[in-house]
Amino acid sequence: MIFSLKKSNTFFLTPIALAIFCIQFTVAQDLAILKYKGGGDWYSNPTALPNLIKFCNETIATKMNEKPETVEVGSTDIFQYPLLHMTGHGNVFFSDDEAQNLRNYLISGGFLHIDDNYGMKQYVVKELKKVFPNQELKELPSSHEIFKTAFAFPKGLPKIHEHDGKRPQALGLFYENRLVLVFTVESDLGDGWEDQEVHNDPEETRLKALQMGANIVKYAFEN
Question: Is the pTM higher than 0.85?
Fold first, then answer.
């Protein structure tokens, strides 16, 4: 049996399924938008991912679909994608079953990038405790591989938008020494990925955001 049934319409992965999905991750090369509950605008920055995907396809030889799909946290559809992207401004809520599904995804080879579009941090930190109860987010040092996989960022995560004027941070969660999640805060990469006329960012700023995004994509696909 690949799935074990706990409640109606809720499945948990057996070791066989985990192996199958790990194989899928090695051959699939695409990303999806993660839809969550709680009222936060998971759908914000509509032009961001298409622009990032186009940039990655042109610069780091990916072959991603330029129209990313949307998947829900509690769905087994998330296992079709080696990389999930999550963003928004407000509340985030994971049910226990959704948290377990996301945990299974991450420990079986998946990767989640959460980009704070402003106002997510307090909710994300709380909900991630459901996913990894015994872990705390840790800031990645500027020497981490994710800052140099394709483009060099010797000072770490670039600052794209001011927000509260604090320094940008890339916070990570690890499972068995593998980085499975990056939460970017006080940077707002997604705003930098959007069409230029949305935020009127200088081209140099947008390029930094796209390059850092490409680093995250490349890291997720290769690790």
Answer: yes
